[in-house]
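Hello support,

Our group uses your service weekly, and this is the first time we've seen a run hang past the timeout. The protein is TadE-like protein. I'm not sure whether the cause is the sequence or the server load. Input pasted verbatim:
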Amino acid sequence: MSNGNARVGEQGMVSAELALALPTVVATALIVLAFGVAGASQVQACNVARSVARAVSIEQARPDTAGMQVHVSRGSNSVRATATKALPGPLQGMGVMAKCAAEAPVEPTW
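Update from on-call engineer: The timeout came from a worker crash unrelated to the input. Re-ran successfully.
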């Protein structure tokens, strides 16, 4: 612990160190937040692709696609849905997309 007798040249060192370290901490927090948003968007794209593939395979109305672009291709035995969404925020300017595909077997109709 300090006894309160700071040397003359060391006054204000904590403020200077904080001023140098704070931008790094903020940048790291923003990067972690961006990766979190990217991960959540990827999960959302997979959920949309899976639900659309399932709905088309059983010939029901398509569910809400939550602002995503969805492409559906139908084969003789399966339906494939691909959901794509541009990521929000600074990642959008980098052209990063959340994309996921899901396939479901075609259900027989009665």
